[in-house]
Design goal:
Blueprint: H1 14-23, H2 30-49, H3 53-66, H4 68-77, H5 86-96, H6 100-115, E1 140-148, E2 153-161, E3 168-175, E4 180-187, H7 190-200, E5 210-212, H8 215-224, H9 234-250, H10 259-262, H11 270-274, H12 284-292, H13 296-307, H14 314-332, H15 335-355, H16 358-370, H17 379-412, H18 415-428, H19 458-461
Antiparallel strand pairs: 1-2, 1-5, 2-3, 3-4
Helix pairs in contact: 2-4, 3-4, 3-5, 4-6, 5-6, 8-9, 12-17, 13-14, 13-17, 14-17, 15-16
Amino acid sequence: MKKGFPVSSKKKTKKDKRITEHTDRRILPAGEQVEFDQDLAEVKAGLDRGDSPESLAAMVVSRAALSPQLAGATIRGLAGLPHPGVPPLLAELKSRLPDLFIQKEIRRTIHFLRQRGLEFDEAMFRDEPRKILSPPNPERIYGYIGSIPEHGVFQLVIIREPSLTAPELHHVMINRFFEFLSLESVFTTKKKIQVFLSEQFRIHSPETNSAELELDAARYILEDAAPLVEQLDKEERTKYRALTAWLRKVAAPLERPPIYKHLDIPASDAPSLVDKLYELIETPEFFLVAAGLKTAPLADKVEELDRSPLHLSPEIEEERYADLISEATTDIFNPDLISILRAYFETLAYYLFRLGRRKEAARYLALAMGLDDRDQDSPLALATRRNLVTVSLNLNLEMRQEDRGSDLDLLDGDEDEEDEITEKRTESGIILPFGPSEDPDEEDDPDNRTESGLILPYSIRE
């Protein structure tokens, strides 16, 4: 055994070593030992005087800014001062010194003072509830609006991704012309939702035909389709009501169709927009309406006027054409058709606006404004109906002329050529889906006409 090292006659336990280590002031460097003695003496004197915990803590806090080790030693020294003022002082230091090293010293000092019988107000040292390191993601709600333009169908998809349960997908298809509504709601996975969006809505595709759908717009469109709900079966009606009830909780109500949030067309600009409808005839959204209006009787009268042997002056002919169009306008635009077309144009304008096709959206919004049933005798309303009938009439006459030309070609052709021409016309969707009856005296197929009188493609009914 080496000389100079004292040997204790009693072996220390681990508990004795911990207490000694905590209260032994000589673990500080020699240069800070004097400061430690002074700091602890000042704290003891302040406790005896009844100083406030805030003033006593200020001295320790200032030391901690210069030397956390010295401040920690002072806090350890408080374990040797079982004074009633020590617990409030430790509580103040606990709130003002967030350093992990010092917080550890405070907890250990509290532990040793409790072992010595000092009473503590547990409310001062109640641990704060632990924060969840990875809180669940908030609920995500989003949607898209798409279109099947050749059939007048709008598609809505509304997706709800709760934080703790399976995602929900709600797919709605609406066609107001045929009073058609379908709804499918499923619980699925995020991966399957992305596959559905890619295939059905072509999201993230260069040729996408879908746009982001605002929740208040989704609520308005679904609530506006409420008259169609009765055609659904019991299960679908339950899903529809659940979906609309949920949307009412997360989306504000709209007093007008959603397009009016984004576009405001002055009444003075609207007539110029509805005067150039021929520019829209190449788009399937407008072709559907132009080809579906019941202008076949008007086309018969115009052709009869053209075949008349009477030689009338251009002024009189123009006046007679204007009278025929005015009369047809009154017959065609019944209240039901006006309501359906206005809702269709407003939804279409919103859809195109969300796609970024602002000019077309403005044109369709002007049409909707012209079909406002609150002012059917305004110049805009009259011009809207007249221009719609004129475009539809010209399309009808053009298709008849093409039919006659094709019939002449077929007289000299063989059966194969006839089949080829018929096939091409069927695929184009111009003649067969929308063409009037070949027999002028034969009425149009009632199964292909809506209650409003609009003739639409056969394929959508099938």
